[in-house]
Structure to design on (74 residues):
C-alpha cells in the first residue's frame, strides 16, 4: 500500500493534485455559489417592480396636485 503522507513523486509537489481535487470540486463550490446567490439577490432587491414604480408615480402625482410641488426637496 502507498503511504500518501510521503512526498514521493516525479515532481516537487506531487501531493498537490491529491489535495486540490477535493478542495476544488467538493469544498470550493459551496462558498462560490453562496456568494453568487447573494449577489443576484442583492441586485434583484434594488430594482423596483412595475407595481412599485406605478405606485410611486401615483404618489408623486398626488403630492404635486395637493401641494403644487414641482421638485422634491432633498
Amino acid at each position: 500500500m502507498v503511504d500518501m503522507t510521503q512526498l514521493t513523486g516525479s515532481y516537487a509537489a506531487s501531493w498537490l493534485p491529491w489535495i486540490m481535487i477535493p478542495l476544488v470540486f467538493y469544498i470550493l463550490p459551496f462558498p462560490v455559489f453562496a456568494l453568487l446567490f447573494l449577489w443576484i439577490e442583492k441586485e434583484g432587491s434594488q430594482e423596483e417592480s412595475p407595481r412599485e414604480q406605478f405606485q410611486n408615480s401615483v404618489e408623486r402625482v398626488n403630492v404635486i396636485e395637493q401641494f403644487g410641488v414641482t421638485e422634491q426637496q432633498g
Summary: The two ends are 75 Å apart (CA to CA).
